[in-house]
């Protein structure tokens, strides 16, 4: 969780209040200095809901096993969000063929989580 109440105005903690990213989003396709940002969503099919990870076009070379980082991203997602409630909300909100975005998870190749913007649908 990020503390946005820094009285010095240095929300990103880099010592330079002038260099803060105003919207906190940045460019999702760029590798971040502190990790890679992966988009997270749920794809609705006829009879199933499928967890999907959107991989940035520029990714740290330390990621050697795509299945492993997808498992790590999924694990982090369900540690943050209530799986049952989130899937129910996705099923109620989206039709077949649609993908509902849950946010992003920023992670380093060693598996450490730098941050996330995860939230259930509708919040």
Mind sketching the topology for me?
Elements: E1 36-44, E2 49-54, H1 66-80, H2 83-93, E3 99-107, E4 113-116
Antiparallel strand pairs: 1-2, 1-3, 3-4
Task: Describe the model.
The chain is built from 2 helices and 4 strands. The chain is α+β, with helices and mostly antiparallel strands and 123 residues long. It has one domain. It has a 4-stranded antiparallel sheet with strand order 2-1-3-4, with helices on one face. The longest helix is centred in the middle third of the chain and has 15 residues. It is globular, with a radius of gyration of 16 Å. The two termini are 17 Å apart. The N terminus is likely disordered.
Task: Identify the notable features of this structure and list them briefly.
4-stranded antiparallel sheet, 21% helix, 4 strands, disordered N terminus, 2 helices, alpha+beta, globular, 123 residues
The helix-strand sequence is EEHHEE
Distance between termini?
17 Å
Question: Per the principal axes of the C-alpha atoms, what is the gross shape?
Answer: globular
Helices, by number, come to 2
Placed side by side, the strands forming the largest sheet appear as 2-1-3-4
Mean pLDDT: 78
- Estimate the strand proportion: 15-25%
Q: Specify the biggest β-sheet.
A: 4 strands, antiparallel
Radius of gyration: 16 Å
**What is the strand tally?**
4
Write down the domain tally: 1
- What percent of residues adopt helix (DSSP H or I)? 10-25%
Structural class: alpha+beta
Instruction: Give the uncertain stretches in residue-range form.
Output: 1-32
């Amino acid at each position: 969780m990020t503390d946005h109440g820094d009285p010095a105005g240095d929300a990103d903690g880099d010592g330079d209040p002038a260099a803060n990213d105003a919207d906190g989003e940045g460019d999702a396709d760029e590798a971040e200095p502190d990790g890679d940002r992966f988009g997270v969503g749920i794809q609705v099919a006829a009879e199933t809901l499928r967890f999907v990870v959107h991989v940035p076009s520029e990714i740290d070379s330390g990621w050697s096993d795509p299945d492993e980082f997808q498992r790590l991203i999924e694990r982090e997602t369900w540690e943050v969000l209530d799986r049952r409630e989130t899937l129910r909300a996705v099923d109620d909100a989206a039709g077949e063929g649609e993908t509902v975005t849950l946010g992003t998870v920023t992670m380093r190749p060693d598996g450490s989580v730098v941050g996330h913007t995860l939230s259930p649908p509708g919040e």
